């Protein structure tokens, strides 16, 4: 079980059995991980705090901030899950240290793209989701190497916590994507595919609509796409004008994203755009087991 699967199962248990069972499950299984990210620690101290385990919550927090030297966005410490810790001096100390590190990191954070030079006639550019990074993307998408495409990754400048990044709904994502595309010989590739997970999908769609970014296909996995709530018609027209083929993959149990996907799919069908939609039974906000097969069928079907 990798980190994403572990945290997703923890979230399921919160809804099924409550925070205490979810906390006990996470504590029992964290040692199967090679390392614990700032997100794992966030789950640990939040779940401990909401399970009346204040002392354990503070120990996890101190391990993250003091021992591991991690940090978080200041908003993290305003979470109501941490209300029971707010007045503790240890909590205040960790919060202050974290904010100082965050502000320092914010000043120097830059968009990171793995592209160095052109090595194929086809290019796939992958955008991570929130609380992720390029390394996390590579774990899932690396199977595409050797499939006649050059696979590269784009990491946001918008920081979330230590070594994890995010794409804000109305943030600078489209600008970052456009500037990256302008710097990597994008138009010299015959076949260009943009791929995103979760919030990365919203950046792709905003970039196509607002920055006239052009490609042959887009792959949207577990797409968090609030863009469909406003001016969706302008998005549809941009996709139609540039003849962009769309693949949407979403879990039927993905409560946050499923409704948005349905709205988007309906609009695409109404405008007779080329859309392929897969709703995966029993899947939450995650990749399906046959993800590799789905993607390969989509990118190779015209070859």
From TrEMBL:
Residues 3-106 form the BCE-2095-like N-terminal domain. Coiled coil: none annotated. InterPro entries: AB_hydrolase_fold (IPR029058), BCE_2095-like_N (IPR054527). NCBIfam families: TPR_END_plus. This is BCE-2095-like N-terminal domain-containing protein. It comes from Senegalia massiliensis.
């Amino acid at each position: 079980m990798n980190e994403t699967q572990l945290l997703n199962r923890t979230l399921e248990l919160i809804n099924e059995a409550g925070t205490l069972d979810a906390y006990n499950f996470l504590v029992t299984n964290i040692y199967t991980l090679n390392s614990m990210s700032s997100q794992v620690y966030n789950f640990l101290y939040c779940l401990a705090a909401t399970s009346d385990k204040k002392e354990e919550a503070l120990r996890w927090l101190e391990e993250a901030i003091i021992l591991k030297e991690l940090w978080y966005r200041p908003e993290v410490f305003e979470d109501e899950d941490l209300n029971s810790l707010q007045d503790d001096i240890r909590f205040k100390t960790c919060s202050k240290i974290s904010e100082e590190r965050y502000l320092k990191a914010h000043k120097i954070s830059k968009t990171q793209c793995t592209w160095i030079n052109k090595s194929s006639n086809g290019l796939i550019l992958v955008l991570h989701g929130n609380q992720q990074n390029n390394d996390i993307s590579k774990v899932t998408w690396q199977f595409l190497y050797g499939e006649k495409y050059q696979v590269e990754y784009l990491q946001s400048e918008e920081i979330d916590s230590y070594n994890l990044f995010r794409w804000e709904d109305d943030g600078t994502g489209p600008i970052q994507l456009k500037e990256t595309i302008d710097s990597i010989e994008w138009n010299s590739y015959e076949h260009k595919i943009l791929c995103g997970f979760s919030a990365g999908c919203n950046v792709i769609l905003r970039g196509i609509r607002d920055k006239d970014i052009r490609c042959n296909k887009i792959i949207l996995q577990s797409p968090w796409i609030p863009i469909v709530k406003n001016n969706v018609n302008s998005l549809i027209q941009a996709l139609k004008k540039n003849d962009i083929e769309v693949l949407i993959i979403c879990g039927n149990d993905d409560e946050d994203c499923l409704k948005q996907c349905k709205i988007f799919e309906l609009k695409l069908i109404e405008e007779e755009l080329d859309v392929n939609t897969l709703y995966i039974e029993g899947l939450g906000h995650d990749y399906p087991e046959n993800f590799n097969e789905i993607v390969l069928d989509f990118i190779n079907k015209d070859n």
